[in-house]
Amino acid sequence: MRSADSERMGGTEGARPVEVRTRFERFPASIKGAFVLRGADGNPHSVRLDSAGVVRIPSGPRKPIPLEDRLLDVAPSRDLFVPFEVAVSELEPSWYVIESSVQVDGGRSWRFAGRPFTVPWLRSDLRRGTIRVGRPVVVGSKRFLVDRLELGPDSASVIWRADLGKRRKEAVPAEGGPGEQASEALIVVDGTVLELLPPNVAGTRSEFRLSPGERRSISYPLHRSAREVAVRVRVSAREQSDPVDVRLP
Questions:
Q1: Domain with 147 in it
Q2: 38 and 113 housed in the same domain
Q3: Which of 10, 122, 172, 189 lies at a CB distance of 3.0 to 4.6 Å from 162, suitable for a disulfide?
Q4: What local confidence, expressed as pLDDT, does residue 1 receive?
């Protein structure tokens, strides 16, 4: 059994009139918990839970959570608990979040999502351990150092850093410009890129802490069936490094 207290993340833009936190416990065949609603702007509101579900991230299937269709009076100074239960025994091993959507005062709806969690993989299916790489890569005028791969029970991480070297005065931004993606390191397995996980996954594990200057890109875990593995650093949708081959132990 595993328990978690998930917090609001993401959703539509603008100040939210209500906040929704999701508290739950994991059981072998189900998740039981409650959506905790509270007014966020100092005013009472009439709220309807539009929908809720267990959603694979970063994309994939959604399993609806059954909800009672009723109006709820939400106050700014008190928590209102709406219990839920959903079967998860049929879900494939993967990363998920519990999402909810609430309609406020018969008007706009707001979306909330909790902290990511996993339906675990079989330990025997995955590669584990740390693989040292220590190879520099170049993307345009930017230099990076791919330090290592950390292979865990539910993720594979590339630890990398800006390698300024002789170009010490160059700035390597963490984010790209308009229309560009954040700099990230991709793991390519047998010609296919492993799915990247959202950055907030790093906040769910103490072992994801980094030394100063290090960056971490977190992907889905590496299966034992992998034969050829490489790493690419991408700084935008159109700019990425040549692959750095990784020797598997």
A1: 123-246
A2: yes
A3: 172
A4: 39
